[in-house]
Write a structure and sequence with these properties.
about 450 residues, about 70% helix, mainly alpha
Length: about 450
C-alpha cells in the first residue's frame, strides 16, 4: 500500500474526519446542494428537449423514440469506461467538469434557438452530449459519497442525496413544461444550463481532499513495488464486470435494474405521447403530472432511512418495486383531460415516485455496502451499464409499438413489462437480505468475489 496521503487505508473510514452528525459537515452540504442543482438542471432538460420536439417541431413517435435513444445511448457506450476512469480520479473534479460541459451544451442549444437553428438535428447533438456527461457525473457523485462519509453514514447520506433528486423531480418537470409552454425553447434551455452552473459553484467549494484509491487497491491484481501504475483500462473494466457477475446480490440488482429500465424507457416514449395526444394535456399540465413523482420520491427517500432497518432490505426492495411499478398499470385506463383524470395521474405518479425512490436508495446502499472502496466506481458503472444500457433499445421499441399498436395498448404492455423486475428479485436471495447491511467481500486476484 502506498504511503501517499491520497491512498485509501485498509481500515474503512480511517483518516476521514466526518462529523458524527452528517448535516454538520460543510463539505457534505456542498455536495448535497450541488447535486440538487445538477438534478434540477437534468430533470428540466429531460422534459424540455422532448416537449420541444413534440409541441414545437411536431415530432412523430418514431423520431421521439430516436431522440430519447440518442440521449440514452451514452449509457451503453460509456458507462464501463466511466467507472474505470472515475476510480482513479477526484470525483469532485469530474462532477465540476461534467456539469460545466452540460451547461455549455444547453447554452449552445439556447444560442441555436435564438439564431433560428434549433431543429431536431441540434436537439440530437445536445441530447447526446448531455447524456454522455450525465454518465460520468452519476458515477462520480455516487463514488464521491463513499469517499466523503463513513460507511455507517451511507444510508442516511444516500437518503439525503436521493432526497435532493426528489426535489429536482418535484420542480424540474413542471418547470421544464412551463418554460416551453409559457416562455420559449431557448429560454428553457438557458435556464437548465443555469442550474448546472450553480452545481459547479457549489461542488467546486468542497475543501476536503478525497481519499482516492491507490493504484494497487484499484488494480485488484499483483502489483510490484517498483511499478504502481494502474492496469490498462480494459483490464479494470473486466475486473468490474467479473466482480458484479461473481456476487449474487450485485448480479440480481443488475438484472432487475435492466428489466425495469428497458420496460420503463419503452413506457416513457408512449407516456410522453399519451399525455398530450390521447389525454389532450398542455405542456404545463404534462410537466405538472410528471412533477408528482417529486414529492413521492421525497417521501420515499425519508422512508428509505428507516424501513430497511425495520423490515429488512430485501422485503423493502420487493414490496416497494411491486407497489411502485404496479401503479403505472392504471395510466392506460384514463380518458380525457378532466379534473378526475389529472387527479388520478398525480396520484399514480406520486405512488410511483414514493416506492421507486425507496427501491433506488435501498438498492444503492446495499450495492455500496458490499463493494470494496477501490471498486466503487467500476461497480457503479457496471450496474449502470446493465441497468441503463438497454434504455436506447427500449425507447426505440416504445416508438415502434406506438406506431404498430397505438398509444393505449403500447402503454399497457410496456407498463406490464416493468413487473418483471420485482419478479426477478422475489425469486432470488436478494429478497432475503435482512435488516443489517452486509460488509464488503475480499477481492481475490482477477476481481471476482467468492460466490454467495
Amino acid at each position: 500500500m502506498s504511503s501517499d496521503s491520497s491512498a485509501v487505508s485498509d481500515v474503512p473510514d480511517a483518516g476521514r474526519p466526518v462529523p458524527s452528525r452528517l448535516w454538520r459537515d460543510r463539505d457534505f452540504r456542498r455536495l448535497w446542494l450541488g447535486q440538487a442543482s445538477s438534478q434540477i438542471g437534468e430533470q428540466t432538460s429531460l422534459v424540455v428537449l422532448p416537449l420541444i420536439a413534440v409541441l414545437t417541431l411536431d415530432t412523430d413517435a418514431g423520431r421521439l423514440g430516436v431522440l430519447r435513444a440518442v440521449g440514452q445511448a451514452p449509457i451503453l457506450l460509456f458507462s464501463l469506461f466511466a467507472g474505470a476512469w472515475v476510480d482513479r480520479r477526484q470525483a469532485r473534479t469530474v462532477m465540476v467538469l461534467t456539469d460545466a460541459g452540460r451547461a455549455l451544451a444547453l447554452g449552445g442549444a439556447a444560442l441555436a434557438g435564438l439564431l433560428g437553428g434549433l431543429g431536431l438535428p441540434a436537439l440530437l447533438v445536445v441530447a447526446f452530449v448531455a447524456g454522455t456527461l450525465s454518465v460520468y457525473f452519476d458515477v462520480a457523485y455516487q463514488a464521491s459519497l463513499v469517499r466523503l462519509v463513513r460507511r455507517d453514514q451511507l444510508v442516511r447520506g444516500n437518503s439525503a442525496l436521493e432526497g435532493c433528486r426528489s426535489a429536482a423531480q418535484l420542480g424540474g418537470p413542471a418547470l421544464g413544461g412551463a418554460m416551453v409552454s409559457l416562455l420559449s425553447a431557448p429560454v428553457g434551455a438557458a435556464c437548465s444550463a443555469g442550474f448546472f452552473v450553480l452545481s459547479v459553484l457549489s461542488i467546486g467549494r468542497i475543501r476536503r481532499r478525497e481519499a482516492v484509491p491507490s493504484a494497487s487497491s484499484v488494480a485488484s491484481v499483483p502489483v510490484k513495488a517498483e511499478n504502481l501504475e494502474p492496469p490498462r483500462v480494459w483490464l479494470r473494466i473486466h475486473q468490474g464486470l467479473r466482480f458484479v457477475v461473481g456476487d449474487t446480490w450485485l448480479r440480481i440488482v443488475g438484472l432487475a435494474s435492466a428489466a425495469f429500465q428497458f420496460s420503463f424507457a419503452a413506457m416513457m416514449t408512449a407516456y410522453l405521447l399519451f399525455l398530450p395526444r390521447e389525454l389532450h394535456l398542455s405542456g404545463a399540465a404534462v410537466g405538472l403530472a410528471l412533477a408528482a413523482t417529486g414529492p413521492g420520491a421525497l417521501l420515499g427517500s425519508l422512508l428509505a432511512a428507516r424501513l430497511p432497518g425495520r423490515f429488512g432490505h430485501g422485503a423493502v426492495l420487493v414490496g416497494a418495486a411491486v407497489l411502485g411499478d404496479g401503479a403505472m398499470l392504471c395510466v392506460p385506463l384514463l380518458h380525457g383531460p378532466s379534473g378526475g383524470t389529472m387527479a388520478a395521474l398525480l396520484s399514480v405518479n406520486f405512488v410511483f415516485g414514493t416506492f421507486g425512490q425507496l427501491v433506488n436508495v435501498t438498492a444503492m446502499s446495499l450495492r455500496q455496502a458490499v463493494t470494496p472502496e477501490g471498486m466503487q466506481g467500476r461497480v457503479t458503472a457496471t450496474i449502470t451499464f446493465a441497468g441503463m444500457g438497454l434504455t436506447p433499445l427500449g425507447s426505440l421499441l416504445g416508438g415502434c409499438l406506438v406506431q404498430q399498436w397505438g398509444l393505449r395498448t403500447s402503454l399497457l404492455v410496456t407498463a406490464a413489462g416493468m413487473m418483471v423486475s420485482p419478479l426477478l428479485m422475489v425469486l432470488s436471495p436478494l429478497a432475503r437480505v435482512g435488516r443489517t447491511l452486509p460488509v464488503p467481500k475480499a477481492v481475490p486476484l482477477g476481481g471476482r468475489p467468492p460466490m454467495t
